Amino acid sequence: MSGNYWIWIEGRPVPGAEARVPVLDRGFLYGDSVYEVTRTVGQKPLFYELHRARLASSAAGIGMTLPKQAELDAAVSDTIQAAADAAAAPDSTRPPVEGGRDFYLRIIVTRGAGELDLDPAAADAPRLVVLVKPLAMPNPQLFRDGASLATVSQRRNAPGHVPPEVKSGNYLSSVLALTAARRRGAYEALMLDLHGQLCEGASSNFFAVIGGRLCTPPRSAGILAGITRGVLLKLASGHGIPVSEEPLSLADALAADEALITSSIRGVMPVTTIDKHPIGSGRPGPITRRLMHHYEKLIGEFR
């Protein structure tokens, strides 16, 4: 599996099988880390400045220092180039890369290693890890026919817990949520807050089309404000589709005309069932299709 990865670790990109992280690294021990995920378009990281800004915000949210911007940028660039060079090699045994040699990109910064102690002061120095692998998009059928969601018992963090706006390596609630959804035959989980209001997916933001408006839970609902979520809100508004960030109940979602989810790898994906209940016509709706078109057009402009 690691043969498809190039990983920046300890100052240089190496094949995935050669990458090592100390067992005493706090990211491994406690999930004491922040990260970002995006993809490349024409081997350029998509919405990179937005992801880099959110990485900095996440780090500030847990009192972590990031590497200098020049080091981070060089690590990302060098790792993408190493992966591209390997994929282009005539004797490469790696599978073909979709989208003209585009890649999945994950940037991770841990607080570092140190004594086995919860106290952050025990950490030595932040550790930067960059993972790059060939981009594998979701099954095209999901974009044609729509995805299924299942509401799960796992809840988003309440106030006073890990701030939801921090994209951290402490991701177990989403792991458990997706596991529960998959056991019910759904593609993605739909998570609620402690009051039963809709928040987001295990790894996506949720939208409903209600009376011609594109509605999505507000940041105050305890969501991670996704980069693609923000891009889509601007796209919709710019193309004459009214947008609203408002509290949504499960009943609102089930009665919606259309639904969709967004994430950095998926982009815009239609949702046609929630808890096996068809949404609208049970097919991707016209506003969803418009938004998918405008988003794909925007992505094409990056090439």
Structure overview:
It is a single chain. Helices cover 31% and strands 27% of the residues. It is globular. It has two domains: 133 residues, Aminotransferase class 4, branched-chain amino acid transferase, N-terminal domain (D-amino Acid Aminotransferase, Chain A, domain 1, 2-Layer Sandwich); 161 residues, D-amino Acid Aminotransferase, subunit A, domain 2 (D-amino Acid Aminotransferase, Chain A, domain 2). The strands form two sheets. Strands 7, 8, 9, 10, 11, 12, 13, 14 and 15 form a nine-stranded mixed sheet that branches. A six-stranded antiparallel sheet has the order 2-1-6-5-3-4.
For the record, the CATH architecture of the largest domain stands as Alpha-Beta Barrel
- Looking at how many chains there are and whether they match, the oligomeric state comes to single chain
Instruction: Quote the beta fraction.
Output: 25-35%
SSE sequence, one letter per element: EEHEEHHHEEHEHEEEEHEHEEEH
- Globular, elongated, flat, extended or rod-shaped: what is the shape? globular
Number of strands: 15
Structural class: alpha+beta
Indicate the low-confidence ranges by residue numbers: 95-99
CATH class identity of the largest domain: Alpha Beta
Can you give the mean pLDDT?
93
CATH superfamily of the largest domain: D-amino Acid Aminotransferase, subunit A, domain 2
Tell me the domain tally.
2
Radius of gyration: 20 Å
- CATH topology of the largest domain, which one? D-amino Acid Aminotransferase, Chain A, domain 2
How far the N terminus sits from the C terminus, by CA atoms, comes to 28 Å
Q: How much helix, percentage-wise, in residues?
A: 25-40%
Largest sheet: 9 strands, mixed
Number of helical runs? 9
